[in-house]
Amino acid sequence: xxxxxxxxxxxxxxxxxxxxxxxxxxxxxxxxxxxxxxxxxxxxxxxxxxxxxxxxxxxxxxxxxxxxxxxxxxxxxxxxxxxxxxxxxxxxxxxxxxxxxxxxxxxxxxxxxxxxxxxxxxxxxxxxxxxxxxxxxxxxxxxxxxxxxxxxxxxxxxxxxxxxxxxxxxxxxxxxxxxxxxxxxxxxxxxxxxxxxxxxxxxxxxxxxxxxxxxxxxxxxxxxxxxxxxxxxxxxxxxxxxxxxxxxxxxxxxxxxxxxxxxxxxxxxxxxxxxxxxxxxxxxxxxxxxxxxxxxxxxxxxxxxxxxxxxxxxxxxxxxxxxxxxxxxxxxxxxxxxxxxxxxxxxxxxxxxxxxxxxxxxxxxxxxxxxxxxxxxxxxxxxxxxxxxxxxxxxxxxxxxxxxxxxxxxxxxxxx
Length: 416
What we know:
Layout: H1 3-29, H2 34-49, H3 63-73, E1 77-78, E2 81-82, H4 86-107, H5 114-135, H6 146-175, H7 179-211, H8 215-253, H9 261-275, H10 281-291, H11 314-329, H12 335-343, H13 353-367, H14 372-384, H15 392-404
Helix pairs in contact: 1-4, 1-5, 1-6, 2-3, 2-4, 3-4, 3-5, 3-7, 4-5, 5-6, 6-7, 7-8, 9-10, 9-13, 9-15, 10-12, 10-13, 11-12, 13-14
């Protein structure tokens, strides 16, 4: 069994055992302050239901559920009375409410993955375990006023950081990409919807402590509005990417490049970029440049045979790259994309890393055929060109990505 599968299985098993233990404890000993449990459970379930239309790749597709779950974990008082629910009841309520909320999604085959569910259970348990012993499960006090609010905020930020570490660990186990770049992606996502979740969780815990459960629906509204705005922003980004993908297909429609070439180069370039430590905006720019890397061929009077620019003389490759950069600059995409397209044919010692990646991956796709022998031969030709045309680190990163994806014949090409 692969080490990654062991890691994922261990995380899932830990979350499952914890959830079952918490539910068993609630069934055996009953529920303390059932009104509080019902109110926060309803909020978590509503938040899970509100994930309709969310992108499955969103880091937090149900922010209201996350904020409600964390607020319940950090609830010390309710309407002036001590809260006595403890760690296990917190996990039990969040688990039961979460399962109830995602039921309709699962019935439609669009529910969250097991990684997301495991992270939710473990994050809530971590927050409750940090807070409840300090608070004494209602028997002690941690103070009040700004210092108490800062403590809640600090615990929520610490929980978010631990969740980011866990999310990066699961992605590393599943994809094999470098842990550092995956963790940077997770940390960069925190100031967005993550900060709204932490702020709302803190305010909910404080609001319910002072005003009772009536504060919950009032405090949930701002986060719902934030979620709607976040979804609209994500939709705009999706439309922008679709526009770029459509422009990339122009070379295929015109017969300049083989069908699917631009999308293959984009997907493989993004994977190699992750392998070499790129993340966040750098990966987005790389993907867009890879999609549009051949658009300069639309300016040619005589099409390149098979669209394989890697087989052309160096000067002709540079001319096509400069033409492509000029076209890209007129499309309104970020200037960094045009720079990569323009510099993809420069000597690799003068190129930025994204341009090196696009050049090597484009050459591999131009040279590789359908069989194992052709793929292996293409990779070997790239290795032979590392003295002049392709950066050695990029070629070896490409080889590792191809080996992990199971591309025929590539595993044997890896150096021992």
